[in-house]
Amino acid sequence: MIPTPEMIEAAKAKGREIAGNQPGALVEAFAEVAEAGAIAALSLLPGDPVAVMWVDSTGCEHVTTDVERGKAAAISSGHEVHYLYAAPAPQPVSVKAKSLEWTVEKRHSFNIHIGRGLGLKYEAAVKAYSPGWIVTLGPTEVILDNADALEEDAKAAAQADYESRICSALSSPVEGGTEIPEGWQLVPNKLTMEMEKAGQAEAEECERIFGAAVARDIYSAMIASSPKPPVSSASSAEIESLRVENGEFRQALEKIANFTARCEHDGGFDREIGPIGCDLGDKCVCIGIHPIASGALQTGSFSFRDEAEVLPQDIINLVITAREAFDTGMLPDDESHALDKALEAFSSRVPYENEPSPALQQQEEGK
Q1: How far, rounded to the nearest angstrom, does the alpha carbon of residue 300 sit from its chain's CA centroid?
Q2: What does the pLDDT look like over 343-357, one tens digit per residue?
Q3: Where are the alpha helices (DSSP H) in the chain?
């Protein structure tokens, strides 16, 4: 803010008053100091005053946003004018991201530098047949590929990309609400008609087969029939792209879901000792497979556990486990063949754990 002549004169008068208002160089020196201090202080103010205030002879305070009119009213009545300014805008909070934690893994003849932080995994390595370094994030995204880069340049590029992603995430509006822990799902506050019907049907089926209702099966049936919460448009598009199109694989999933809905190894219910339980114990795969298979069938698509994955690892695990479980001939050849095809398709699209990213793997293969 540029000080007005009136402001400067007021500051100098205050300086003279402090010095005792006696003629002489000392008084004028105080006036000059007061003037310099006023100019420096006013220069820090954010723009022009937004209101003025004065106190009349009765002690009442008057405030108006009409600065010129309020100033004239205060001066005409012989009262001191107090200028009011808007508070400066809050400065953005500076966030210092934690440095990536680097380790080294030996792959064939290459030292692969692994940088981890907040679920992100960067891989940096010397280029195989040309000078420089290459840095990747995940299986396909290349962060740096520079013939002149050194190790410190590669790690600096990874750190810069990491911090950029964190700042972007902090400045982006939050979508989707609270993250749901793995193994949990959102359900409505009130029981829906579909959930009630599914629970009742499951109870009647348990009574018919086991002679008593099985709480676990009833609960699973009700949860499976609960409505799914809406997803964001971006997630919808991503999930839509993964919609199940292979009719044979869908039929195989249906066979698995139906077969594992109730464990075939369960000894049933004895009226004297109660539920007998599964003969296979921890080796039984039915309970683990059923929620994955039924969940995939209900939505018609595969849901994400981690958006960094092209397809969730649990679907691969489902195919592998189901294929092993039904190798004894429990599934007809058509279903077994569909599982084999699904496993082959998923394996080509989803990297296994600890598999090097394609960019680095190509270097190793070209050696």
Answers
A1: 25
A2: 555 454 444 443 444
A3: 5-18, 25-43, 67-76, 151-171, 193-210, 215-224, 233-241, 247-260, 286-299, 313-325, 333-349, 358-365
**Maximum Cα interatomic distance, the chain, rounded to a whole number of Å:** 114
Domains of the chain, residue spans: 5-84, 101-173, 187-228, 233-367
Q: Which residue has the tokens 């092209």?
A: 310
Q: How far is residue 273's CA from residue 211's CA, in Å, rounded to a whole number? A: 13
The answer to whether residue 71 scores a pLDDT higher than 80 is yes
Cβ neighbours of residue 154 closer than 8 Å, sequence gap 6 or more: 113, 124, 133, 134, 135, 144
Q: Read off the pTM.
A: 0.29
Per-residue pLDDT of 74-124, as tens digits, reads 888 888 888 776 655 555 555 566 789 999 988 777 788 999 887 788 999
Alpha-carbon dihedral 137, 142, 145, 149, rounded to 10 degrees? -20
**Residue 198 is encoded by which pair of tokens?**
């599914």
Sign of the Cα pseudo-torsion (274, 279, 283, 289, in order)? negative
CB 147 within 8 A of CB 127: yes
d(CA 137, CA 164): 13
Side chain identity at residue 61, one-letter code? E
Distance CA(257)–CA(292), nearest Å, equals 8
- Which pair of tokens denotes residue 278? 């599964």
Pairing of strands 269-270, 274-275: antiparallel
Strand 269-270 relative to strand 133-137, pairing: unpaired
Of 233, 103, 116, 118, nearest in space to 167 by CA? 118
Secondary structure class of 101 (helix, strand, coil): strand
Q: CA angle, corner 152, sides to 146 and 153, nearest 5?
A: 30
The pairs formed by 306-314 with CB atoms below 8 angstroms and a separation of 24 or more are 306/119, 307/238, 308/119, 308/138, 309/350, 310/349, 310/350, 311/242, 311/346, 311/349, 311/350, 313/350, 313/353
